Amino acid sequence: MERPARLLLLSELRVRNAACDVSMSRSLLTWKRRLSGPVYHPFRPSVSHSVLVSEIISVREEEEENSSKGTDDGSWKKIKEREGKDCRRAFTVLYVERCQQHRWRCAEVTFTCPEGALCQRWVGIIGEQLAAIASRPKRLLVYINPFSGKRQGERIYEQKVAPLFARAGVSTHVVVTERANYARDHLRTEAELQKIDGVVCVGGDGMFSEVIHGLIWRTQVDGGVDPTGPDEALLPCSLRIGVIPAGSTDCICFATVGANDPVTSALHIIVGDSQPMDVCSVHDNNTFLRYSVSLLGYGFYGDVLSDSERKRWMGPARYDLSGVKMFLTHHYYEGTVSYLPARGIMGTPRDAAKCRSGCVVCQQNGKLLSEKAERYEVDEASGSESDSEWRTIRGKFLAINAASMSCACPRSPKGLSPAAHLADGTTDLIVVRKCSRVDFLRHLLRHTSKDDQFDLTFVEVHRVRRFRFTPRHCQSDSDLDLRENGRRQIFGQICRDHPACGCVPAYSSWNCDGEILTHAAIDVRVHCQLIKLFARGIEEPTVFEDLANPCAI
Ligand SMILES: CCCCCCCCCCCCC/C=C/[C@@H](O)[C@H](COP(=O)(O)O)NC(=O)CCCCC
Ligand SMILES: Nc1ncnc2c1ncn2[C@@H]1O[C@H](COP(=O)(O)OP(=O)(O)O)[C@@H](O)[C@H]1O
Ligand SMILES: [Ca+2]
């Protein structure tokens, strides 16, 4: 039998003028309305509310309302002066309330106590419990991209996020970026990281990308590791990153929280959530190019991004227009994809189970990979698998996508790889071979519906630890091939600007978390759980339904 939690305090207080039994344990604050009339009434259940202490945002003492003293003629002021501190007989608790579709709101409840001393006792005990939660950030460095999405970043931060941080007692240093890579460079060279508990970015996936590039770089340099070395075992970043969505897709926020909502993200930051995440390093011939956490897409998604950058003035709608245009253009690209399958780990890309809050697959695989790395004393991403394990796919492709997370976003609520995990040390490599327009449309539409986007003959998916792509014209083929490729490369340059001429460009570029990577040939390694977010993964409804709703007892 479950033992009842030890109570720190139990009092009869009033909530909206109704008498309640209010109790506080180390984990729960509960208030239960007292029944008037007969002690037991089967058809009139008492109403009980519970809030996890870990989801209390703050507590504050209230000045008692004038109305409760009955007059507004200065007599309340006199009483206050006479009674001094003891006049404060009410306190308000701000806490997380769950709404629909994974959104969180800041709710509040005011308790009125029979006397001031009791009120202070309550405020003291709740305050002590909150102060004891070591995972909550106290000082944050915030970067705002004023040009993300619909250019609302500054307004969103000032109106929706800053007031919540203030109420929760979180202090901030806010930097509005002045150019691309401003946040990255500031983190690399200037930011005093020892003075903060986390970094927050306000913007889209591009802003998040800047922050991880700065943080990962700085962590390696401070730890004596070469951030660009292809075979380095990169050091995990200790500072967590918060994402306030204000961009065009905001897939990193959506896939780690379940909603693109600034208030929800701010609350996840305040309560000090932590979600580890894998990071891919991307190299070309041992030259470092970029890091990626969500989508690395060649072909369709690379072309959509390149085309959409020229329409940035349109805001988020640029992706829809470029998406339709690139679908109609129907370019395919030739090359070789090689990959190291992820072996001996839990999970496959075709699983029905999804990565959710407290994911066992991520925990298990994370443990397994770090043990393996320790045993072999080599970089988990580079090393122990032998060359014989590499697999190869040659051909003509409409799209090559590596999804290191589901890549769920409002345009595609289950994402490009619905069963991909946030922190299992793998990426899902999705190869879409050349097919008819109708077939490709079937595949794309499945990104937006419940149907299985991999259940098509021209699509294959592999869970991998590492992969390479070599475009055909880079391969050491016969003279004939080289001549043909040279011709196509020239046409490619021309036809990129004149798609109507019917020639096919030889190269696409990579869409790397929404940033264009012009190198076609890349070598990608997954670094398990290299960074941490102020998030907890998407919650299953059952985790919280008992706490979210007032329960009838
Ligand atoms: C012809 C109809 C096509 C319908 C396809 C719809 C499928 C949408 C899938 C979207 C996957 C998005 C993966 C996320 C990528 C983001 O990192 C990136 C940058 O985000 P942000 O910085 O916030 O703008 N977004 C994109 O690359 C947009 C892709 C949109 C493709 C239509
Ligand atoms: N002040 C700035 N001026 C111009 N570009 C910026 C600025 N700050 C950041 N950027 C760049 O803007 C690009 C888009 O940012 P992002 O936050 O992804 O918005 P969106 O979701 O609309 O694409 C990124 O490449 C980022 O590096
Ligand atoms: Ca972007």
Automatic annotation (TrEMBL):
PROSITE patterns according to UniProt: DAGK (PS50146)
Q: Which SMART domains match?
A: DAGKc
A molecular function GO annotation? ceramide kinase activity
Q: Which Gene3D superfamilies match?
A: 2.60.200.40, Probable inorganic polyphosphate/atp-NAD kinase, domain 1 (3.40.50.10330)
Chain ranges of the DAGKc domain: 135-286
Q: What is the lineage of its organism?
A: Eukaryota, Metazoa, Chordata, Craniata, Vertebrata
Q: Name one GO cellular component term.
A: membrane
Which Pfam families does the entry link to? CERK_C, DAGK_cat, PH_CERK
Native source organism of the sequence = Cyclopterus lumpus (Lumpsucker)
**GO terms (BP aspect):** ceramide metabolic process
Cross-referenced InterPro entries: ATP-NAD_kinase_N, CERK_C, CERK_PH, Diacylglycerol_kinase_cat_dom, Lipid_Phosphate_FormReg, NAD/diacylglycerol_kinase_sf
The protein's name is: Ceramide kinase
> Looking at the record's lineage, which domain of life comes first?
Eukaryota
